[in-house]
Amino acid sequence: MIKQFRHQDITWVDVTNPTKEELAQISKDYKIHSLVESEASSPSTRSRVDLYDNYLYLILHFPQCHSCTLSTPKTKLTKPESGNLQEIDFILSQDFLITIHYKHIPVLDEFSQIFETSFSKKSTDRKENCGLLFFQILLQIYRSLDDDLNLLTNTLKKAESNIFNGREKEMILVLSNINQDLLDFSWSLKGHDRILKSLTEYLEILFPNKFKHHSGALFNTYWRIYGTISNLRDLFTELRTTNDSLLTTKTNEIMKILTIMAFTTFPLTVFTSTFGMNTVYTPILGTNYDFWIIVVIMLAAVALMFTFFRYKRWL
């Protein structure tokens, strides 16, 4: 699907999951190199930026947050879907901006409304406007990641509360989903600093002395987000360690109780089996109050064993 937005001499073309025919037409209309057309026809495995004669081609990957809503204990927990990264290809020149993506990206829809209502009213020259449009879109995307990280922070806080409320087992899958989101954030954004440095150099060629301030703002936004991710990774590690420790403690307590029960019942089983043997003479059996004598002996043996357990501090 192709959407076109125009203001004066500026053109923004937003393309979602394009077909080969659509890419061929766009390449023809805007004189895009065949290598770029081929690269944009399918998702790429890594981010990068290339400079051509009169435009630059930028590929960036951004994460999608799937754990921003913490499931309650009664809600069925599911694993996040595979392929949580979303790719956006940018083709930027002095006259046009083309964005290509293979999934629906709400932030671009929101920005298209901003472009139509407020951005187009600014009276700046053509070259500034096109570059400014590019920077505003990138900033909007990074800021949307800030919102996702805030939601992820709230999810971690809720997980922390549930962990200390005795729901350690239910939090295992929740923490696993959060971990996958944090890994996606770290992996997709890790190389952006190198890409943004190269991007700044190329923009100086396309738009000399125009966007140094905007490049600095973009870098600051990126590093703030990456710092937040690092802090969330530390918080997540502490929570997972605490959750694992509490689960281990509970498991050890259960195993201790089961072991004590087995150790207690085994001698009693042997004792009662002995008196159940079909022999000519069995002590105590046949005397007055033989049943109660055997019961008292068994209770005394149990009391003796529990006294021993208490002495050893096993209970």
Short description:
The chain is of the alpha+beta class and 315 residues long.
Number of helices: 8
Taking the alpha carbons of the first and last residues, their distance comes to 69 Å
Mean pLDDT: 79
Helix content: 55-70%
H/E element order: EEHHEEEEHHHHHH
The radius of gyration computed from the alpha-carbon positions, rounded to a whole number of angstroms, is: 34 Å
Order of strands, main sheet, comes to: 1-2-6-5-4-3
Low-pLDDT runs: 69-82, 124-128
Largest sheet: 6 strands, mixed
General form: rod-shaped
Structural class: alpha+beta
Tell me the number of strands: 6
- Strand percentage lies at 5-15%
Give a structural overview:
By secondary structure, this protein is α+β, with helices and mostly antiparallel strands. Helices cover 60% and strands 13% of the residues. The chain contains eight helices and six strands. It has helices at 20-30, 34-40, 106-117, 126-163, 171-189, 192-206, 212-275, 290-311, and strands at residues 2-7, 10-16, 48-51, 55-63, 85-93, 96-101. It has a six-stranded mixed sheet. Helix 5 runs antiparallel to helix 7 (212-275). 23% of the residues are buried.
Keywords summarizing the entry:
60% helix, six-stranded mixed beta sheet
Give me the secondary-structure topology.
Blueprint lengths: L1 E6 L2 E7 L3 H11 L3 H7 L7 E4 L3 E9 L21 E9 L2 E6 L4 H12 L8 H38 L7 H19 L2 H15 L5 H64 L14 H22 L4
Parallel strand pairs: 2-6
Antiparallel strand pairs: 1-2, 3-4, 4-5, 5-6
